[in-house]
Structures are given as structure tokens and as C-alpha cells.
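testing teh design pipeline on a random one, pls ignore if ur not involved
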């Protein structure tokens, strides 16, 4: 019999957890071909989350949990959950029921068919979300898509069920700064997307302020792209060209090359040269940064004939 591990990062989710547990157990009881385990990861909650998880594990042998010593962030909680999951298939779910449990059965059917390695939820709208947050998120996914050349579209979140091969390759990426959407995309594998509408959080509040979302966005870009360093180089070059053009214009117009034009020209030139060299240093640092992550050079999907 197959085993499905349901991995749930939880940070201050005392209000949402009871309903989450009820709703998900209802769904998995309908999946007759597989048994399930819950791996809850309490990410340093300061409310009653750890007590609730203890109650779950006391009353239901399918429930396990880990408790972090402090808040390490959702990405770390997902990694810990995956590392401790023993299922043939693993699925990440948020505790607030924003990832509809009704999709679990279909996800299992897809990955079990072996046609796909992963079946993921694709959120097709942001109904109920604040406009500013929606607009910023949308812009971020456009930028990151351009910069990183990886498939990290808007709506492609963490709600995914994957087979063991994909789970193991994610575990092989041991980098500290983990940007899961980038990691999913980096490891590849065949993914089927199932669309779903955004649902509002069942209880409790979102853990993301605009500030923490901004930090997350910058982390995502820096983890998967050295384009910003290249951009500094291009900007530097543009400034140097602008400096030369200012000089030529000043001489051409017959006004002489002194006073304001000379000052503007010098400021542009010096800034340009400075940015250009900072960018070169940035390129070296970014290469070393990528190297220090010790990512695998390639990933074997299947082996045969050994
Ligand atoms: N979460 C976590 N650690 C954090 C922040 C969030 O484990 O530092 C969990 C949270 O408990 C929830 C999931 O990650 O299960 C998604 O968080 P949230 O609903 O706040 O994010 P949103 O849906 O608003 O993007
Ligand atoms: Mg949520």
C-alpha cells in the first residue's frame, strides 16, 4: 500500500489547526488505496500550536510533529518536514485551508499514474487578497521570471504532491537560504497543474507583512540569479557613455568644456566607473555564492540495468 506524507508548516496556527485536521482527515479517509501520515512542523509558534499538535499525536497515530526552537521560516519548516517524511508521495499544505484538501485525491491519482512526478495546485486568482499585495506579488513574479529563467509563475505555490524521486532531489539541495518555488523549478521533473480559486484563510492571520514579503522577494532573486550584478555593470557603462556624450555636446555647442557641463560630465564618469567595477566584484562574489551552495551539477531521474 502507498503512503502519502502530508507536510504542514505551522506558525501560530492554533485557530486554524483543528478545522484543518478535520477537513484533511475527511478527505484522506476517501483515499482507499493509500495510507497517510501527517508531519506537522511547528515553526517556533508562540501560541498553543505545540499543545494542539501534541494532542493530535496522542489521539491519532498518523500524526507526528516537530517543534523548532524558534521561528526559522516556512521554507525551513518545509525542509524539516520533508526530511522526516517516510511516504512514497509527499505533499505540502498550508495549515489555514488555503490549499483545498479536496484536491488531494486528484493529486494522488495523477502521481500514482506515473505519468507525472508531481501534481501541483495552480491558484488562478487572488480574490479576497488586498489590492496592493496582489499588485506587488504580480510585479515580483514578472521580474523574477525574467531574471532567473526558471518557471516560477504567479499562482504556482507550494501546494504540491510529489513522488519520492523528486522529494529526494529537493532534499539534496542543502542550501541555507531556501527559496522553495525556485527549488521546485530548479529540480525539474514533470508537473501537472490543477487550477483552483483562491480561498480566504479559515482562521488566524497571514504571517507575511509587506516588509517580510519584500525580503522574501529579494532573497528569491538573489538565490537564483546574478542578473542584478550584471545590471549594475550595464548601468555603469550607460553612465560612462552619457558622460562622453555630455562632453561631446558641450564642445560641439561651442560653449566650451568648463563649468556645469564639466561638472556633470565628471559626476557621470566617476559614478559610471565606480558602478562598473562594483559590478565586476559582484560577479565574482555571486559566482562564489552559487558555488558555496554546493548544488548538484545534474540530477538523475531514473536508473536502469545496474
Ligand atoms: N508559516 C510558517 N513559518 C512562518 C510563516 C508561515 O511555518 O514563518 C506557515 C503558516 O503557518 C502557514 C503557511 O506557512 O501554514 C503559509 O503562511 P500564511 O498563510 O501566513 O501565508 P499566506 O497564505 O498569507 O501567503
Ligand atoms: Mg495562508
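output:
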Amino acid at each position: 500500500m502507498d503512503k502519502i506524507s502530508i507536510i504542514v508548516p505551522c506558525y501560530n496556527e492554533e485557530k486554524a489547526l483543528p478545522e484543518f485536521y478535520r477537513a484533511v482527515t475527511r478527505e484522506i479517509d476517501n483515499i482507499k488505496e493509500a495510507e497517510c501520515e501527517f508531519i506537522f512542523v511547528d515553526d517556533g509558534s508562540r501560541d498553543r500550536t505545540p499543545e494542539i499538535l501534541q494532542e493530535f499525536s496522542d489521539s491519532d497515530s498518523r500524526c507526528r510533529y516537530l517543534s523548532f526552537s524558534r521561528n526559522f521560516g516556512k521554507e525551513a519548516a518545509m525542509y524539516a518536514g520533508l526530511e522526516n517524511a517516510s511516504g512514497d508521495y509527499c505533499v505540502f499544505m498550508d495549515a489555514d485551508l488555503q490549499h483545498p484538501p479536496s484536491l488531494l485525491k486528484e493529486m494522488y491519482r495523477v502521481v500514482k499514474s506515473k505519468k507525472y512526478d508531481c501534481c501541483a495546485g495552480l491558484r488562478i486568482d487572488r480574490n479576497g487578497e488586498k489590492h496592493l499585495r496582489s499588485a506587488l506579488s504580480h510585479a515580483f513574479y514578472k521580474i523574477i521570471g525574467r531574471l532567473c529563467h526558471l518557471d516560477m509563475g504567479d499562482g504556482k505555490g507550494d501546494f504540491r504532491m510529489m513522488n519520492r524521486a523528486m522529494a529526494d532531489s529537493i532534499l539534496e539541495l542543502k542550501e541555507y537560504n531556501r527559496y522553495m518555488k525556485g527549488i521546485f523549478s530548479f529540480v525539474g521533473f514533470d508537473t501537472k497543474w490543477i487550477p483552483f480559486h483562491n480561498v480566504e484563510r479559515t482562521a488566524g492571520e497571514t504571517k507575511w507583512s509587506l516588509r517580510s514579503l519584500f525580503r522574501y522577494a529579494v532573497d528569491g532573486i538573489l538565490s537564483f540569479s546574478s542578473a542584478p550584478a550584471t545590471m549594475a555593470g550595464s548601468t555603469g557603462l550607460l553612465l560612462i557613455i552619457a558622460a562622453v556624450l555630455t562632453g561631446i555636446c558641450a564642445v560641439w555647442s561651442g560653449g566650451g568644456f568648463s563649468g556645469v557641463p564639466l561638472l556633470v560630465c565628471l559626476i557621470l564618469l566617476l559614478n559610471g566607473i565606480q558602478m562598473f567595477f562594483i559590478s565586476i566584484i559582484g560577479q565574482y562574489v555571486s559566482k562564489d555564492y552559487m558555488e558555496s551552495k554546493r548544488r548538484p551539477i545534474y540530477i538523475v531521474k531514473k536508473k536502469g540495468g545496474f
